[in-house]
Amino acid sequence: MSVNENSLTEVIVDQRPEGLRAVYLVEVSDAQEARTLSKLFTDLEARVQIRQLSTGKLVSYAVQVHDSESSILGEMERQLKGNYGFVITQRSFDEIIYRIVADLCADTSSKLLPIPRCCICGRTEPFPSVIVNLSDEQGQVRLRRDYCASCAASATATTNKEFVRSLLASDGKHIRGIEGAQLVRRRSGNRPIRFKISR
Ligand SMILES: [Zn+2]
Fold it and tell me: For residue 3, how far is its CA from the centre of ligand 1 (angstroms)?
């Protein structure tokens, strides 16, 4: 995406606590099975975060739940194994399981869906710990930056402003015009945190 960086006027920082994760890979035999499976996951959306990783014959999802809701992960696993012939589950997300999803997609002509990557270390990250959106005068988001939990944890800062500056400074994309600009906190409650970019 090509962005005129001088048109960026606001930084919006959304932090999402890391929870327990699982990945579910299911082979479906027809469109009806795919719909039933999709409903199973979308029905859970109020309680868990869901990111679909692939579609087609191999349908896969990454799920993140709050620690107190960990029983959902086992419930999901039991339901899937009871209803589908080929199910792989893993109680975490990492590059290895993502590679398995990609390989099985290739083998079954399924479609691997794009997922975010950490803009500092480059790892695939279905649930970024911090999302920084840079928007223009019209409130349109022009640039989205995703950061994983470990990169966010290594951003040394004592204030929210230093935190976002530290992330943007380590970002692989050099966003011109941010370092020299002032960030002015906007009243917006605690989530997300908003700063006006003042040049
Ligand atoms: Zn990272």
Answer: 23
Question: For residue 7, how far is its CA from the centre of ligand 1 (angstroms)?
Answer: 27
CATH topology of domain 20-112: Alpha-Beta Plaits (3.30.70)
**What's the pLDDT tens digit per position in 2-23?**
677 788 999 999 999 899 999 9
Q: What is the DSSP string of 9-45?
A: EEEEEEE----EEEEEEEE-SSHHHHHHHHHHHHTTT
* 3-state SS assignment for residue 56: coil
Taking the CA atoms of 83, 88, 94 and 99 in sequence, report the sign of the dihedral they define: negative
Query: Is pTM beyond 0.90 here?
Result: no
- Residue 132 CA to residue 12 CA, distance in Å, equals 6
Residue 171 CA, ligand 1 centroid: distance in Å: 9
C-alpha angle 148-53-164 in degrees, rounded to nearest 5 = 20
**Residue spans per domain, the chain:** 5-16+128-198, 20-112
